[in-house]
Design brief:
The chain is α/β, with parallel strands linked by helices. The chain has nine helices and seven strands, in the order H-H-H-H-E-H-E-H-E-H-E-E-H-E-H-E. The protein has two domains: about 80 residues, Methionine synthase domain (Methyltransferase, Methionine Synthase (B12-binding Domains), Chain A, domain 1, Orthogonal Bundle), CATH 1.10.1240; about 120 residues, 3-Layer(aba) Sandwich (Rossmann fold), CATH 3.40.50. Helix 7 links the parallel strand 3 and strand 4.
């Protein structure tokens, strides 16, 4: 059975809310020798994005979105225990995220796969105030602060966090990586909030960090009159995860 077959079967059970059947599809693939990291990247992650996209386009209800997201997270939790782990590299990453179940799931998978690559990972989740994140950065001195996923309303707070980090000079060598969420839908937004690195998904995040091991400071001032362009291949965001109804 190909990864595409596994993904198709998994989606069918996911949108039907069939927890046991969805889990069994993934565990059966694991028994056949498919590595857990490939299942996270090739099944769980794209399923997460599919749920997010269909809900944003009003093609599934809030109930279906909730059920699918929670099943996806349950399966991701189980796969985490099967991940092969490389020797510790000495690299350190803090992972935080925007508000919402899907954002938490994306950030969790990101942290799990960084850990499998030998990184020390602190997964903060969502809702942590900027001043506490700043204090934690000062204590742990990570190489990377990864901010996964955000709705448009959360962008100003992310910008303030990055500005504060650079303004007070805490952990100058640390790079800020943004990924997923609105950063995938608004062209140039990662640059506008002054992130050092951008990645659309977890596989790209790992590759990007490996390709850019050292921070290169960016200019403090954006070009006058610069406007962001929405990526044409992504649908318009019309409602938030929290306020939308069924």
């Amino acid at each position: 059975m190909t990864m595409g077959d596994v993904f198709k079967q998994y989606l069918e059970h996911l949108f039907a809310g069939k927890r046991c059947e969805a889990r069994q599809v993934v565990l059966a693939a694991l028994d056949r020798g498919t590595p857990a990291c490939k299942l996270l990247q090739g099944v769980i992650w794209p399923a997460m994005e599919q749920v997010q996209r269909l809900y944003r386009e009003d093609r599934i209800s809030l109930i279906v979105e909730h059920m699918a997201t929670r099943i996806n997270r349950m399966v991701a939790d189980q796969l985490q225990g099967f991940l092969g782990r490389k020797p510790k590299t000495g690299k350190r990453v803090i992972v935080t995220c925007g508000d919402g179940e899907i954002e938490e799931l994306g950030a969790q998978i990101t942290g799990d796969l960084f850990e499998a690559e030998g990184w020390s990972v602190w997964f903060l989740g969502s809702g942590v105030p900027n001043d506490e994140i700043l204090e934690f950065i000062g204590k742990t001195e990570p190489d990377i602060l990864c901010i996964y996923g955000a709705m448009p309303a959360g962008v100003p707070n992310i910008r303030r966090l990055i500005e504060t980090i650079r303004g007070v000079g805490v952990c100058d060598g640390m790079q800020v990586l943004v990924a997923g969420g609105v950063f995938n839908r608004a062209e140039g937004l990662a640059d506008e909030v002054k992130a050092d690195l951008y990645a659309p998904d977890v596989r790209s995040a790992l590759e990007t960090v490996a390709e850019h091991p050292v921070r290169v400071p960016k200019p403090d001032v954006l070009e006058p009159g610069r406007r962001r362009k929405r990526k044409r291949h992504m649908p318009h965001v019309r409602r938030s995860h929290v306020t939308a109804g069924v």
